[in-house]
Amino acid sequence: MSEKKLGLLYALSAFLFWGLTPMYYKQITMVPPFEILAHRVVFSVVVLVFLLFISKQFNTLKPIFKSLAKMKYLIFASILISINWFTFIYSISVNKIVEASLGYFITPLVTVALGFLIFQERVNKAQGIAIVLAIIAVVYQLATLGTIPIIALTLAFSFGFYGMVRKKIAISSIPGLFIETIVILPIALIYLNFLVQNEQSVFNTLSSYDMTILSLSGLVTVVPLLWFNAAATRMSLTALGFIQYIGPTVAFLVAVFVYDEVLNVNKLITFTLIWIALVIFSLDGLKRRKA
Fold this sequence. Notes:
Blueprint: H1 3-26, H2 33-54, H3 61-66, H4 68-93, H5 97-119, H6 125-145, H7 150-168, H8 173-197, H9 208-215, H10 217-232, H11 237-243, H12 246-258, H13 265-290
Helix pairs in contact: 1-10, 1-12, 2-4, 2-8, 2-10, 4-7, 4-8, 5-6, 5-7, 5-12, 5-13, 6-13, 11-13
């Protein structure tokens, strides 16, 4: 198999996995979101320690810990990804997978907008139109429903800023994610210990099957990220950009057709505006790539 085909396989696997992830978290909705997040951090560290060991990358950690600049960025990244993880888990627990998928549709547009506002990067006419359409979609939902899509915006901006922070530092995925998770590991352990001491831990009341499912949260977190990084090294960013919309599209379909989440006309109009914006955004990227 050629490197391009292998990259395509990795990319499809990663984004299909992410799109189906709500079905995993639906299995453990009896556990409060904060407790799920804490366990996710703990089990992710376990998986990452194993991966660091078999890939012989432990020696890459010491220089990172010694760099104050890199550690500041990684601590900030840790906070952002924790917010993103919690918001996603929460959205599933309150049956708002549709809004979560909207957030990940908006994310690429937010990334471009942040680049323009913070780093003074140039935004061409097509990108500007796409961003304006996304803003109109959010404003439309606010006007028609009377509510701000907090979940969607939190997911989009937390992941958008997270991507920008990680772009600032040249650290490979496994060591970087390991440090991000161990930064919040003490908080997760303190919180889990508090639950146990006050007999509020839901984990201790679960069946063996449910405990096993929750214990897989580390693999659910790490595996698709590794597939994504394997794809990124083998594919063009333009091709990867098109494929990334598989994730939120699958999540959207799962929400509507598996879990019967309501899709009214106003939500459909909001999504239509976002999809039009993404088409413009993606075609512009393809055009510039060819040029």
